[in-house]
Specification:
By secondary structure, the chain is mostly helical. The chain has a domain at 82-222 and 270-295. The chain has 15 helices and two strands. The chain has a two-stranded antiparallel ribbon with strand order 1-2. Helix 1 runs antiparallel to helix 13 (246-269), helix 7 packs across helix 10 and helix 10 packs across helix 12. The two termini are 34 Å apart.
């Protein structure tokens, strides 16, 4: 199969790289992905990844020096609270909410887009990660899931979404709808343990608000129309040539562009965190405890 980023590029009309080093970095042959890439001006010398690196350099430097990343990578100061498995579990829950929404949008954008994204979809893997780390946390602490719930900040007023409902309820409904959509499309198995309000309740109000802002932004992007000319799509492996109508193609275009950056950042940049996090949060327990009722395992929607 061709490089998934080249497939993204073929849809958006951009060339992710002109040289083999990019594909070698991601474990894909440049020859295998050539058929999925669109031809661009031969005078173009900079690769898309190089342009992205240059444009986001300042933001990356700021993020790398942030307290959150320092805690995640275990290189914080002595006075900084430890980033433990419960914090990592919350981080995974937040990521899953975002990916479920994003992938629910892009798989409905037509068969060509769906085909290009199949090799990088992450919602199912993230759901399995959440369950594995929840199992580990409950096994090692001999706790009930209710013991993991944080006390709400008494000084923080409950926030509400634009629809007037509280943010946690909005998030729970949004994630539930996204997961149902992924199941109906065959992306998630029917028996997948889903995120529900029990998981959302593990997040702090600030974390919920941050995810809600992100999801609302994705929803806005999915409704953005960039014109009536439509977008021409290059066929990928297993798909027939097609041209999306402007009502579908132009609306999904900004979400697809966001997905390209999102997946590239997690699958490429995230490799720097892989070894450290795998060691720091190793999974020792591969099966749930016998007392299933005590921990309400698994949590399903």
């Amino acid at each position: 199969m061709g490089c998934p980023f080249a497939m993204f590029a073929s849809i958006t009309g951009i060339n992710p790289a002109h040289h083999s080093s990019y594909h070698a970095k991601h474990g894909h042959s440049s020859m295998a992905s050539t058929s999925a890439m669109m031809m661009i001006d031969e005078t173009e010398k900079d690769t898309l990844t190089e342009k992205m690196k240059e444009a986001t350099w300042a933001v990356h430097r700021q993020l790398e020096r942030s307290v959150g990343v320092a805690a995640l990578m275990g290189r914080g100061t002595d006075g900084m609270p430890a980033f433990d498995r419960k914090d990592y579990l919350k981080f995974l829950i937040m990521l899953t909410c975002i990916y479920a929404q994003m992938e629910s949008i892009i798989i409905n954008a037509g068969p060509t887009i769906k085909q290009a994204c199949l090799s990088v979809l992450r919602t199912e893997s993230l759901l399995h990660d959440i369950q594995a780390h929840l199992d580990e946390l409950l096994c090692t602490s001999n706790a009930d899931i209710m013991d993991l719930l944080e006390l709400q900040d008494e000084h923080q007023e409950p926030s509400t979404s634009e629809s007037g409902i509280d943010s946690k309820t909005f998030l729970a409904f949004a994630v539930q709808d996204a997961q149902v959509n992924l199941i109906q499309d065959g992306i998630l198995p029917d028996d997948t343990a889903r995120l529900n309000m029990d998981y959302i309740n593990l997040l702090s109000p600030r974390q919920v608000d941050a995810v809600v802002v992100y999801i609302r932004r994705l929803k806005t992007l999915s409704k953005t129309n960039y014109g009536d000319e439509g977008i021409s799509f290059t066929p990928t492996e297993g798909c027939s040539p097609m041209k999306q109508t402007s009502s579908t193609a132009s609306k999904i275009h900004p979400v697809l562009a966001h997905a390209y950056v999102r997946y590239m950042g997690d699958l490429s940049g995230g490799q720097h965190m892989l070894k450290r996090l795998s060691k720091q949060f190793a999974i020792q327990h591969t099966t749930p405890p016998l007392d299933d009722d005590r921990i309400n395992y698994p949590l399903k929607g």
